[in-house]
Amino acid sequence: MAEGVKYVIGISGGSGSGKTCILNELADHFSRDEVCILSQDNYYVPKEQQLTDENGVKNYDLPSCIDADLLVSDLRSLINGQTVEKMEYVFNNDQKEATKVIVKPAPVILIEGLFIYHYAALKEYFDFRLFVEAPGNAKLIRRIKRDQSERNYPLEDVLYRYEHHVNPSFEKYIVPYREDCDVIINNRYSYKKGVDMVQRFIRSKLQDL
């Protein structure tokens, strides 16, 4: 543990692997006094600062899309016992109104995101690393369903982004850190056993803190 008395757990994996579902299910097992959550999704830089590809499409699947410095700063604040306030990330969904996200410090901090293991400034803070994996076809189907229902993306746009942004980024910035992780959760069919194991692990750590 880098500093303070907090235990920091990372949860990463490709888009559509099930990271958020696993995170939410883990959170349901604990009170807010035991576990708090930081989501990388709330640290995207403003839309106008995002890079565009050769066809003029915004690419939200690059490490540079995230304000990693602010993410690290907020993690330090939680470790030091300070509450973090952040506006929810909704800038690629014109139909949703952003709400304020308030994260209060807790002994165990869960950080979820695509690129959290890529940022050098974050590496020293992880006490435990999880990696969620799933077959490519399953991830694509989940991505299609999510982007159409939550972000109002047409199918053609979802497929374009997956081929030209999501998958190349996965291979370059996410897969290389898989072997450095402590536990790999296979979400081919179900993540229940993996969640149960991690839930028991977190419970044991809470007893030590």
List keywords for this structure.
6 helices; 209 residues; 17% strand; alpha/beta; single chain; Rossmann fold; two-stranded antiparallel ribbon; five-stranded parallel sheet
Short description:
With 209 residues, the chain is an alpha/beta fold. It contains six helices and seven strands, in the order E-H-E-H-E-E-E-H-E-H-H-E-H. It has helices at 19-27, 68-79, 120-123, 136-150, 155-174, 192-208, and strands at residues 7-13, 35-39, 84-87, 100-103, 108-112, 128-133, 183-186.
* Rg calc: 17 Å
Can you summarize the main beta sheet?
5 strands, parallel
Which whole number gives the mean pLDDT?
A: 88
Q: Report the top-level CATH class.
A: Alpha Beta
User: How would you sum up the global shape?
Assistant: globular
Q: What's the quaternary structure here?
A: single chain
What structural category do the secondary elements indicate? Answer: alpha/beta
Strands, count: 7
How many domains? Answer: 1
Q: Judging by the overall fold, what is the CATH architecture? A: 3-Layer(aba) Sandwich
In spatial order, strands of the major sheet run 2-5-1-6-7
| Low-confidence region ranges | none
Q: Helical proportion?
A: 25-40%
Number of helices: 6
In CATH, what is the homologous superfamily? Answer: P-loop containing nucleotide triphosphate hydrolases
Q: CATH topology, which one?
A: Rossmann fold
Cα separation of the termini: 11 Å
Beta fraction of the residues?
A: 15-25%
H/E order of the elements?
Answer: EHEHEEEHEHHEH
